[in-house]
Structure formats: C-alpha cells, structure tokens
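User: What would this chain look like folded?
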Amino acid sequence: MNNKNKKVTKKNKNSPLYEIGKNLKMTAQERAATQFSAVALKKLETVFDNLREGHTITQACLFSDLSRAAYYQIMKARPDLRRVQDSILELRCQIVEDSLFKNAVDGNVKAQVFWLKNRKKERWKDRIEYEDENYDTISEKDMKRDIRRLLSNNKDILEDIESEPDEKDKNTWS
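Assistant: Here's the prediction, encoded as structure tokens.
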C-alpha cells in the first residue's frame, strides 16, 4: 500500500495539532485549507518538536523532511498552526529572557547592564539628555558644542573644558 494515500484514523491526543483542531472553530476558508496530507501534518509535528529544541525553521524542516515551501504554505493556509509556531518561538524568547535575568541576578555585570538598558531605557541609556527651557531636550554632545560656542571668547575656560573630553567624544573635539 502506498504510504502517501494511507489515511490516518487514530488521533494522537498528545499532539498540539489535535488540541488546536479540537478547540478552535474554523472558518470555511480555514476548513478548505486543511486539505494537506496526513503525512505532511505529521512532518509538521516533527518540525514543531525541532523548533522547541532550538533549531531554526530551515533546520527543523530539513530534519523533518518537509520542504520550507510546504511549511510556509501550511502556515499561510492554517492560522491555527501559525499560532502554534508563534507560541513556540515566543516560549524560546522567554527562556532566554529568564536565563538573562538569572545571570544578571547572579552578578553578571554585562547581563545586568544589558537588562537595565533594555528594560529601563529612560533611566539606563548611554546618551544623556539635559532639559533646558530654550530646548525640549539636548544631548550631552550638543550641550558641549553650545558651551564651546558661548565660551569661545574666553580661551582659558574653554581649554579647561576641552582638557578632559569623554572617551566617546575624543575624535569629535578640535
């Protein structure tokens, strides 16, 4: 008997595809798009398993013997399966976030800086902005430029300010 024409009658209740199909009411368009072979859907389960293990979509398709084109065709036609993929990818991000947080709490300074710069951007950023009544906000570089312009007549004060430039501004000072 040809495996391509073989119908799968037993439903795997542990499969995420089973749960999705059982719980969602599908539109007529989605029902029409379910005409993929049972073999392709079984391969898709393997793709999802590989994604959970951390593989890229390309690798997961390769390991599952499903072409990327077929994979994306299924994802386009089946929004319910696309949601499964998205939840797997989101879970992977959460795992990395949790690991980053654990490293930050355990004293990894680089992880702490990265976490704070990305979670509390308004308080932990490289660019310092100053409020001024004549400006909405001005950067430190712009403020130094304005001070140089104002003090250009008084060379002594200007030389004091320029004697200790910031590391990142060394190349911009004349």
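Residues 129-172 form one domain. If you want, I can go into more detail on any region.
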